[in-house]
From TrEMBL:
One of its GO terms (molecular function) is acid phosphatase activity. Belongs to the metallophosphoesterase superfamily. Purple acid phosphatase family. InterPro entries: Calcineurin-like_PHP (IPR004843), Fn3_PAP (IPR040974), Metallo-depent_PP-like (IPR029052), MPP_PAP (IPR041792), PAPs_C (IPR025733), PAPs_N (IPR015914), Purple_acid_Pase-like_N (IPR008963). The keyword Glycosyltransferase does not apply. It comes from Solanum bulbocastanum. Residues 1-22 form the signal peptide. Keywords: Glycoprotein, Hydrolase, Secreted, Signal, Zinc. Residues 287-502 form the Calcineurin-like phosphoesterase domain. This is Purple acid phosphatase. Its EC number is 3.1.3.2.
Length: 611
């Protein structure tokens, strides 16, 4: 009877999915969940081991599933559920007219039962190794027959749980609002009425101090629609952010996350370290990695989002392996592709933790974070799956004045970065347009010569097929609104995501190349170089067959870009593939301050006639 009670909530989950509009990235898009029925079979079983994870302090471990059935088929599959046991009675309806069955959670991922045993159909037995991360709750595993189109629930496993599901996890560093401030954001299961969150930190090998952390969380009412409020809802835990201030430039600091329980007990994370940012204008070796549209991918090969981010793990791996040669990372939109399935944010922060715990990880807003009808976004589509920006704004820190207005600036030594929010109006006369002009105009180019514009959608130039089909070769109204700012303030490079490939233009203004050189730029650029770096991991986008004079290099593959500032006069730009981290495109800029001051078309004020 106990097993059957446990099965009922999972069946209710599947039934409740009926009628939910799915997105192309829906994690169960291949499954006709509205056809699911209970078909409990005494001959079927599924067992998970070990039942307790994380006893050694790890928050990411592998488990083994063993299962069998008396009527096997190559269409059988296994779903991963967390929490393991839930009741429809715990779900709050969105309105009082809705009656059970109600959805409480959704499967996190699934895998076919015959994946590791080609003889599964004959023997009826199989096994899987799956990777689990600590997500503040227990897990169970359900065996289905009938394939993805007519799923029949035949067995559910025992529960599996981490030893401390509330542990502080997945630190995310980000630059603060001043150059000498670093923020640390992390996730835990401890509310502030249970424990006091803080960071213990200090110079490596030196005296340590403690800084308190603020705590945020969200509930269903914070979100805008389905699936985030319904099939995709999962408690995101508590998000803590601490501000580490008055850092010395380029100094290495150590830190660890802590929670002081009210009984006096301390809960600690492992020890981490980071290097503080250089002073704005400081001349030192400064290395920046930029990409968009990475998402997450399951290391165990489970089926999530129809394998929508096949390059994600490779990009993550290459950055981790080269992290000693990277100072700061920018992920310019379409971060997780959770699309309303909140469990995926935990999965992503776990995947990138080796990066985010060591260097600042700065994000931009993309359509898959923000867009939702009647929510204030510039585009009325449903790409965020009902998240309407809330998850991105809560899970990661970024130094914006208003977290819903995702535009901000940040300095890193000789670089000034101006980050746009393409999901809000950027056109002339808007609040964002005024911010961008101030960001460009306020930088001292003698001290910070490298002026970089970052945005998710391509506000400049792209040969992506869907832009070419529109005839715009970029976001409609994008460069029409902003190119006079880029030109007036001599923006060096503009980098975008959204189009899942790599492309680089010549220095360009008003659709005309301002230099014929392609790889070694000396002196005044006379225009802005536009780069699409949207090949972080999501499914690739084809190029148009139309040829343009401004496109210098294209690559239909996964990759990321790296910029290295050697000093105030020399910059190296490289495009690396995620498959091998080798350089496939590059250019360098060599110039003096007087080259930045030099007049170009539409970049200089009028001269006085007085002598």
């Amino acid at each position: 009877m106990k097993t059957f009670v446990m099965l009922l909530p999972i069946l209710w989950v599947l039934v409740a999915l009926h009628g939910v509009t799915s997105h192309e990235d829906h994690p169960l898009a291949r499954i006709a969940v509205h056809n699911a029925i209970a078909a409990l079979d005494a001959r079927a079983y599924i067992k998970a081991s070990p039942s307790v994870l994380g006893s050694n302090g790890l928050n990411q471990e592998w488990i083994t599933l063993e299962y069998g059935t008396g009527n096997p088929s190559n269409d059988d599959w296994v779903g991963v559920f967390s929490p393991a046991n839930f009741s429809a009675a715990t779900c709050d309806p969105e309105n009082n007219m809705v009656t059970p069955p109600l959805l409480c959670t959704a499967p996190i991922k699934y895998q076919f039962a015959n994946r590791s045993n080609p003889n599964y159909k004959r023997t009826g037995k199989g096994s899987l190794k799956l990777q689990l991360i600590n997500q503040r709750s227990d897990f169970s595993f359900a065996l289905f027959s009938g394939g993805l189109r007519n799923p029949k629930l035949v067995a559910v496993s025992n529960t599996v749980a981490f030893a401390n599901p509330n542990a502080p996890l997945y630190p995310r560093l980000a630059q603060g609002k001043t150059w000498n401030e670093m923020t640390v954001t992390w996730t835990s299961g401890y509310d502030i009425n249970e424990a006091e969150p803080f960071v213990e930190w200090g110079p490596q090998g030196g005296q340590q101090t403690r800084s308190p952390a603020g705590t945020l969380t969200i509930d269903r009412s914070s979100l805008c629609g389905a699936p985030a409020r319904t099939v995709g809802w999962r408690d995101p835990g508590f998000i803590h952010t601490s501000f580490l201030k008055e850092l010395w430039p380029n100094l290495v600091y150590t830190y660890k996350l802590g929670h002081k329980l009210f009984n006096g007990t301390y809960i600690w994370s492992q020890m981490y370290k980071f290097k503080a940012s250089p002073y704005p204008g400081q001349s030192s070796l400064q290395r920046v990695v930029i990409f968009g549209d990475m998402g997450k991918e399951e290391a165990d090969g489970s089926n999530v989002y129809n394998q929508y981010q096949p390059g994600s793990l490779n990009t993550t791996k290459q950055i981790i392996e080269d992290l000693k040669n990277i100072d700061i990372v920018f992920h310019i939109g379409d971060i997780v592709y959770a699309n309303g399935y909140l469990s995926q944010w935990d999965q992503f922060t776990s995947q990138v933790e080796p990066i985010t715990s060591r260097v600042p990880y700065m994000i931009a807003s993309g359509n898959h974070e923000r867009d939702w009808p009647d929510s204030g976004s510039f585009y009325g589509k449903k790409d965020s799956g009902g998240e309407c920006g809330v998850l991105a704004q809560t899970m990661f820190y970024f130094p914006a004045e208003n977290r819903d207005k995702f535009w901000y600036s940040t300095d890193y030594g000789m670089f000034r970065f101006c980050i746009a929010d393409t999901e809000h109006d950027w056109r002339e006369g808007t609040e964002q347009y005024k911010f961008l002009e101030h960001c460009f105009a306020s930088v001292d180019r003698q001290k910070q010569p490298w002026l970089i514009f970052l945005a998710h959608r391509v506000l400049g130039y792209s040969s992506g097929d869907f832009y070419a089909d529109e005839g715009s070769f970029g976001e409609p109204m994008g460069r029409e609104s902003l190119q006079k700012l880029w030109q007036k303030y001599k923006v060096d490079i503009a980098i975008y995501g959204h189009v899942h490939n790599y492309e680089r233009t010549c220095p360009i203004y008003q659709n005309i190349c301002t230099m014929t050189e392609k790889n070694s730029y000396k002196g005044t650029l006379n225009g802005t170089i536009h780069v699409v770096a949207g090949g972080g991991g999501a499914g690739l986008v084809k190029f148009t067959s139309l040829q343009t004079k401004w496109s210098i290099f294209k690559d239909y593959d996964y990759g990321f870009v790296k910029m290295t500032a050697f000093d105030h006069s020399n910059l190296l730009f490289e495009y690396k593939k995620s498959s091998d981290s080798k350089v496939y495109d590059s250019f360098n800029i060599s110039r003096d301050y007087r080259d930045i001051l030099a007049c170009t078309v539409d970049s200089c004020p009028s001269l006085t006639l007085a002598s």
